[in-house]
Amino acid sequence: MAVNNGKRWNHNIHYHPQILRAVPAGARRALDVGCGEGMLARGLRRAVPHVTGIDLHAPSVEQAREHPGDVEYIVGDFLTHPFEPASFDVVASVATLHHMDAAAGLSRMRELLRPGGVLAIVGLARSVMPRDLPRDLAGVMAGTFHRAAKGNWEHPSPMVWPPPVTYPQMRALAAELLPGSRFRRHLLLRYSIIWRRPPH
């Protein structure tokens, strides 16, 4: 595990601030989908009084529970866990959506949001070659620079590669299922989706 000044870094952690900046004022309950060992959930807890993290990978959740704090951690499948519909002000997810059917995942996240709540996702998708090659090469170079400066923390959760859905497919799904959402493709081989559920 490489760290810089005691701080963890990897491509996913790099985009945690995007998630945290999306938390709406006055949010009371947040859900971290695919929480792993809980780093994002702990970040959310600094802004939101009640945070739940859920993940299928029991060893990662056990690591999360070793950290002090009052985040609730669940070992389970968020697609089927009996959360109440419209019960969260924030639903967040980092590097998790490609582990499941993307349409089902987005629909479930939408269902769990209260009116006015915010969905914030950072995900992985598959490039369309050769069109995306220059962008991907730039991302690899930037990632190499960051790792040299900051180290690279290896998370304990299982990996899925390659992602089953392409960037254009993800953008289209977001437009279809989350009308008005903001989809952005980022340099470090990630995308983000930010969506606020209409208040009525």
TrEMBL record:
Highest taxon, organism lineage: Bacteria
SUPFAM superfamilies named among the record's database cross-references: S-adenosyl-L-methionine-dependent methyltransferases (SSF53335)
InterPro entries: Diverse_substrate_MTase, Methyltransf_11, SAM-dependent_MTases_sf
Molecular function via GO: S-adenosylmethionine-dependent methyltransferase activity
UniProt entry keywords in alphabetical sequence: Methyltransferase, Transferase
Domain Methyltransferase type: 31-121
GO biological process, one term: methylation
Pfam families per the UniProt record, alphabetical: Methyltransf_11 (PF08241)
Family to which this protein belongs: Belongs to the methyltransferase superfamily.
UniProt protein name: Class I SAM-dependent methyltransferase
Record lineage: Bacteria, Bacillati, Actinomycetota, Actinomycetes, Streptosporangiales
